[in-house]
Write a structure and sequence with these properties.
Radius of gyration: 17 Å
CATH architecture: Alpha-Beta Barrel
CATH superfamily: Metal-dependent hydrolases
Shape: globular
Helix content: 40-55%
Largest sheet: 8 strands, parallel
CATH topology: TIM Barrel
Structural class: alpha/beta
Bound molecules: zinc ion
Order of helices and strands: EHEHEHHEHEHEHEHEHHHH
Strand order of the largest sheet: 1-2-3-4-5-6-7-8
Strand content: 15-25%
Number of domains: 1
């Protein structure tokens, strides 16, 4: 049976000053669009900004962008969370500094007080990221591009985390992701030569990799997973109505 559900890209980067023509060029894919700072997220949602029914803007504090960390205000971040269904990009990167840890901790504290999904960066700091997640009780954490060992996956699963995966990840890592906790992503424009994504929302390569690994009904499964995640996190009504409709249709039939 052909799948009528759109592609899901649970982690991509779109600049807050994207034009309407650029958003229109994304086609029908549902894209979770990360931002690097509160200011960029605010700018993306400005009244005169480009609008697409299938783009879910996230509010971020990118751990790899020093100016975002330096300018971070926990109050400003928390004050905007009611307007966003999603926080990202947030997390720790590389040899995480005290500033990174403090910012990530304050982000998780705010997220624990508001219904919100959280797309988390953990490259080079997986243990530290899991330690921080363990300090909070959060239902909506999605580890993006998580290159964990089996023990780290086991711990993340125990903590209730979800995983968004892309085509730059190895088969060995993809095999460790439980089918019922998996979402697809591009992380566009990162690692374009490995993800083979032509644009945000272009998840063809990761979908076919998953099929090659023996996963079935990947598109349907991913949407059902998102439906469960959205319900657990209580963010359904914060999502654009077009995205809510896709989730409804994925869970019927
Ligand atoms: Zn990213």
């Amino acid at each position: 049976m052909p799948c009528n559900l759109p592609p899901l890209d649970a982690h991509a980067h779109i600049a807050g000053d994207v034009t309407q023509a650029q958003l229109d060029a994304l086609g029908g894919a549902v894209v979770f669009a990360m931002t690097r700072s509160v200011n960029e997220a605010r700018y993306a949602l400005r009244p005169a900004g480009a609008v697409a029914a299938n783009v879910v803007w996230a509010i971020g504090v990118h751990p790899g962008v020093p100016v975002s960390l330096a300018q971070h205000s926990p109050e400003a971040f928390a004050g905007e969370l009611d307007r966003f269904a999603l926080a990202g990009e947030v997390g720790l990167a590389g040899r995480s500094s005290e500033t990174q840890t403090n910012v990530f901790r304050s982000v998780l504290e705010s997220a624990a007080d508001h219904p919100v999904l959280v797309s988390v960066h953990s490259a080079g700091a997986r243990t530290e990221v899991l330690d921080e997640i363990a300090r909070h009780s959060l239902p909506g954490v999605v580890l993006h591009w998580f290159n964990g060992t089996q023990a780290e996956f086991d711990r993340a699963i125990e903590l209730g985390c979800w995983f968004s995966v892309n085509a730059a990840m190895s088969d060995a890592t993809l095999r460790m992701v439980p089918p019922d906790r998996l979402l697809t992503e591009t992380d566009f424009p990162a690692a374009r030569r490995k993800t083979l994504a032509a644009r945000p929302g272009d998840v063809r390569e990761i979908e076919s990799r998953l099929v090659a690994l023996g996963r079935t009904d990947v598109r349907t499964q991913v949407w059902r997973n998102l439906a469960s995640l959205v319900e657990e996190a209580g963010v359904m009504t914060k999502l654009p109505s077009a995205v809510q409709q896709v989730i409804h249709s994925a869970t019927q039939g």
